[in-house]
Design brief:
The chain is an alpha/beta fold and 252 residues long. It is built from 10 helices and 9 strands. It has a 7-stranded mixed sheet with strand order 2-1-3-4-8-7-9, sandwiched between helices.
């Protein structure tokens, strides 16, 4: 019997998917975004020159399932590492893949400075509103009132502040050429996510400047919900606060 990788190869030709068991939990939105990344790289024919820079957390597993070169950066430092790599090897396609905790907390300064520099790299933030790998603690994007491992009575904005809106912070930066927020809440949202991802990758291929896409995804384990409940939460609660859309598109 053909294995999973061979089945995919028969559909897509020389595939970059690796035949490995996911370490993502059942229903994790990372699996969807990782698949979108793989499909976009294949569709653009940039596999041989692509380098992924991953952060610490569940997002750090993404490159385990793709047959591309990858760098594991220190916690939060992926944008800085990606910037340095791109400046040293401008012929490569370089993107970061990070969670909201890695990018929005310890890595926020690195992200904003990379965006402000305008170096043509692509940064992806997968936002599930918790620190998923370490037990579902409150992250910078946890919603007001959201119960987490460290906010048993819900996030109190008087004590903890408000969920951070990352792409909105970068709209005024002239070096940022593509800026979007998408979700994987349902099939239509996933299709829109694929389109934004392609635009963000094309922004780098055209050497225009910095590109960023935030993906709103569910974390059933961290949210302490069933898969169906987690996707309903993503569609009804998360997307209500983190409104999807393209904030900036200067790729034409």
């Amino acid at each position: 019997m053909e294995n999973a990788a061979e089945n995919l190869s028969s559909l897509y030709g020389q595939t970059l998917y690796l035949d490995k068991l996911f370490s993502y939990c059942p229903g994790c939105g990372h699996g969807i975004v990782t698949r979108l990344v793989a499909e976009t790289i294949e569709a653009m024919g940039i596999r041989e020159k692509t380098v992924s820079v991953v952060g610490i957390g569940c997002g750090g597993f993404s490159h385990h399932y793709l047959d591309i070169d990858a760098i594991e950066a220190m916690h939060g430092r992926s944008p800085s590492v990606a910037t340095g790599f791109k400046l040293a090897s401008p012929e490569n396609f370089v993107f970061t893949y990070q969670g909201d905790g890695d990018m929005g907390a310890i890595g926020l300064a690195d992200l904003l400075h990379a965006a402000n520099k305008g170096v043509p790299i692509t940064c992806l933030m997968i936002n599930n509103t918790v620190f998923g790998m370490t037990g579902g603690q409150m992250s910078p994007t946890s919603l007001p009132g959201q119960v987490t491992a460290t906010t048993q009575k819900g996030r109190d904005t008087r004590l903890h502040g408000y969920p951070i809106l990352v792409p909105e912070m970068m709209r005024a930066m002239p070096g940022v050429k593509y800026l979007a927020r998408e979700s994987v809440a349902d099939a239509a949202a996933i299709r829109r996510s694929g389109k934004s991802l392609r635009r963000a990758f094309e922004c780098q291929e055209k050497n225009l400047g910095f590109a960023f896409v935030e993906f709103i995804v569910p974390c059933p384990t961290g949210l302490k919900k069933s898969v169906r409940e987690a996707y309903d939460w993503c569609k009804n609660e998360m997307v209500s606060y983190f409104k999807p859309g393209v904030f900036k598109d200067e790729t034409e």
